[in-house]
Amino acid sequence: MNNSELTMNEYKTLILFGTRKGMTTETVSVIAGILKDRFSHIIDISDTKQIRHYKKIIHEYDNIIIGSSIVSGRWKSRILSFAKQNIFANKRVAIFVTAGGTLNKINKYGITKEAAVNEAIEKYIEK
Ligand SMILES: Cc1cc2nc3c(=O)[nH]c(=O)nc-3n(C[C@H](O)[C@H](O)[C@H](O)COP(=O)(O)O)c2cc1C
Q: Which helix or strand (DSSP H or E) is residue 106 part of?
């Protein structure tokens, strides 16, 4: 591997997420693992407790991944407020939700995974 290939992949990525009972931490570990192992990203991870700190140093990151668990149809409010802020110019931003109730419909009602994922995107990300 030459030098230009090395620097090309050294993206710095911040994952900030909201959780109520900790399940979303597992989802974040999977995302971080893939970005680290397959794409050589340098990853920092935080739940909502350190949002103020990361807001101050957001300029250090190329990519920001923002996510929340969905409980009673809602994001965790602190991470939702963060996502709505106008501080992401020149950054690539990705959004995810953990919506166990919606994904459960695959087993419960036999809907396809694609339909369940589309429902979660429409209800909890696009709206
Ligand atoms: C009280 C309660 C309400 C929930 N409401 C929803 C919901 O409205 N839609 C949904 O898709 N999943 C819902 N879920 C499933 C959660 O999204 C799922 O359990 C998630 O993994 C919780 O993550 P957390 O522990 O990181 O907060 C609900 C779960 C609980 C316990």
A: helix 100-109
Q: Output 56 or 7, whichever has higher pLDDT.
A: 56
Q: Which residues contact 70 (CB under 8 A, 6 or more apart)?
A: 97, 98, 99, 100, 101, 102, 120, 124
The burial class, CB within 10 Å (0-12 / 13-18 / 19+), for 32 is middle
Is pLDDT at 18 greater than 90 in this prediction?
yes
Q: What is the pLDDT of residues 58-90, one digit of tens each?
A: 999 999 999 999 999 999 999 999 999 989 998
**What distance in angstroms lies between residue 101's CA and the mean position of ligand 1's atoms?**
6
All structural domains of the chain: 3-97 (3.40.50.360)
Q: Indicate the residue type of 33.
A: G
Q: Is the pLDDT of residue 23 over 60?
A: yes
Task: Name which residue sits closest to atom 4 of ligand 1, judged by CA.
Answer: 71
